[in-house]
Amino acid sequence: MTLDACTETLRQHDPDRFGAVLVAEPQDRAALVTLYALNLEIARAPFQSAEPMLAEMRLQWWVDRLDQMGAGTPPPLHDVLTPLWQAWGTQAGDLSVLAEARRRDCDRQPFDHPDQVVAYVEATTGALMQIAARRCGAHEGVRDIVGHQARGAGLAAWLRALPQLQAMRLGVEPARPEDAQALAEQARDGLRLAARLHGKLPRRAAAALYPGPRVPRLLSEIIAGRCDPFAVTPAITPFQRRASLARLALTGHWWR
């Protein structure tokens, strides 16, 4: 029940956020590690049962624990919840929105319009980035800028995972290339808006705003029709990941 368990989970299953945490200010690392480890557990919960009702019960367990923490009740000993409580205290109650946003996953229903995807991404990845950015010093006045970055990063991550999502019936049906291109354009526009206004955010928030490696390249290839995200998306090599994180560490530039 230590921070090490969360760190190892993040290293294995979310290497981009793990790398970004290493770049974070020391006082922010425990909060980010536990937040991202919690996000992984919540994202997995709906898929731990093929039965929608059982899947929702597993997700509800997380909602209940977080609500209890928000009310001041420490969690039972747990690899994620215990260090989360130590880092967030009663503020952990605010994180239940991340679990609530995943209820749709329990039903295994695909989206039928790009706008639904955008709303889902804003409620999941978007909310996660807003919470992380606030913890890293982003004030309420820059919420819209963080929202632009979150939309861009979240849609890019969703498009990169689309082949797997389609197989799980969590993608888009029917699979129309123009829908994927429209989502890529929204992602690109969000990143560009955030980049234009990046000076309003503190450098301290860079780790929370990092979108991952090779995001603009992926989006441009989808928009140009050179990549069909329903079939396959370009893999990220270890070198590309290290190079992207090195740029973040050396410059603090989370924008592209």
Automatic annotation (TrEMBL):
Matches recorded under Gene3D superfamilies: Farnesyl Diphosphate Synthase
Superkingdom: Bacteria
InterPro entries: Isoprenoid_synthase_dom_sf (IPR008949), Squ/phyt_synthse (IPR002060)
Protein's name in the database: Squalene/phytoene synthase family protein
